[in-house]
Amino acid sequence: MEQADFRCEDGTLYIDGTTRLFDYWNSRDWADGIRRVVFADGIREIPDRCVEYFPSLEEIVWPAGLERIGDAAFSDCPGLREIRIPEGVVSVGANAFQNAEGARTLTIPSTLSQIGDLAFCFGSESRLFSISVSEDNPVFASRDGVLFSRDGGRLIQYPSARRRPVFSVPDTVTELAEDAFAHCRHLHRIDLPKGLKRIGSGAFAFCRHLEELEIPEGVEGIPSYAFFCCERLERLKLPSRADYLGYESVCNCSRLEEVRLPDGITQIDYAAVGGNPMLRELVIPEGVTELSNSALIDDTGLRKIVLPSTLLEIWDHAFERCSNLEELVIPENVRYIDSEAFLGCTRLKRIVVKSKLIERDDWLPEELAGQVEVIREA
């Protein structure tokens, strides 16, 4: 029988090689008790998902000669108190330390040149308050504990447990990385520079105390999950023009009363403006051709929705549970309305159809058949 490359002794997992490692799914009986992992010197690469889901892990003893840490190698290890990437490591994979929420500090060596997506995204209970980078690192830098590219053009990660109510992003920054401010539960306001061009998906997601935010003119688009679950966001100013509005981007912002969508977008994607119960009125800009599945779902406070003349298709659940909506005008170019588009619109009384392409009323759900008057003005 081939001998495995690991052994366990008194709460310590010793990994002597990476060719015959354990299968996590068959090792749950002992993984919960592991508090320390020791890698043998000479291991150059830690494989993907190598020490994933070890809830009690507190310490990693790194091997001399290590160069690469794989994807999700230490994900979901909430017991880690610090993460100190050793000198010699050149790359850290995607999700490598995701949900290591107990880590208070992160240290990056001079040799690290590549960080995968969400490598250090520690989640809603993150205790990370500072990120430090070797002064000799040519790719990354730390400014006051915040992780940037060395040239200052890209803000990669703000420590989500830092107790400061306001942060001003430096003028050098033109890009916010994916999840750059995600789960920053103490920030009330973030000031963005005028030269900002790109925002990564989820950049402000779960900033539960964020109250106001202005996205500068010139930002190319609003990505998916951009403001997802910003529960106290009351004022959001988007640029007057953008190339796209991602799915669930302005979603579950329970205090947001007003939002002006940018010109230039062609689609309201999945739940892009959904779950915002305080919204009273929404104007969909000209140029939008499609309301996707669940585009405005659970906007329970909406009383007025203005649809553009360019609109062609309204998909399933697009207005689901817009329970205060009483009247809607379907523009002249609409060619398709899904039969589940208006589910849960309990106060809907009147729909004016201006399109000649919608000849029948089979798109109206049975629950509204005797309640809604369909008026044709084609």
What does this structure look like?
With 378 residues, the chain is an all-beta fold. The protein has 1 helix and 29 strands. It has a 5-stranded mixed beta sheet with strand order 12-13-14-16-18, with no helix packed on it. Strands 1-2-3-5 form a 4-stranded mixed beta sheet, with no helix packed on it. A 4-stranded parallel beta sheet has the order 4-6-8-10, with no helix packed on it. A hairpin with a 2-residue loop joins strand 1 and strand 2 (12-15). It is elongated. The model has no long low-confidence stretch (mean pLDDT 94).
Summarize the structure.
By secondary structure, the chain is an all-beta fold.
Topology:
Blueprint: E1 6-9, E2 12-15, H1 28-31, E3 36-39, E4 45-46, E5 59-61, E6 68-69, E7 82-84, E8 91-92, E9 105-108, E10 114-115, E11 130-133, E12 140-143, E13 146-149, E14 154-157, E15 166-168, E16 175-176, E17 189-191, E18 198-199, E19 212-214, E20 235-237, E21 267-268, E22 281-283, E23 290-291, E24 304-306, E25 313-314, E26 327-330, E27 336-337, E28 350-353, E29 373-376
Parallel strand pairs: 2-3, 3-5, 4-6, 6-8, 7-9, 8-10, 9-11, 14-16, 15-17, 16-18, 19-20, 21-23, 22-24, 23-25, 25-27, 26-28, 28-29
Antiparallel strand pairs: 1-2, 12-13, 13-14
The SSE string, one letter per element, is EEHEEEEEEEEEEEEEEEEEEEEEEEEEEE
The number of helical runs is 1
Distance between the termini: 78 Å
If strands are numbered along the chain, what order do they take across the biggest sheet? 12-13-14-16-18
Oligomeric state of the chains in view: single chain
Largest sheet: 5 strands, mixed
Helix content: under 10%
- The SS-based structural class is mainly beta
Rg of Cα set: 25 Å
Instruction: Please tally the β strands and state the result.
Output: 29
Summarize model confidence as the mean pLDDT. Answer: 94
Task: Detail the poorly predicted runs.
Answer: none
* Strand proportion: 15-25%
Shape: elongated
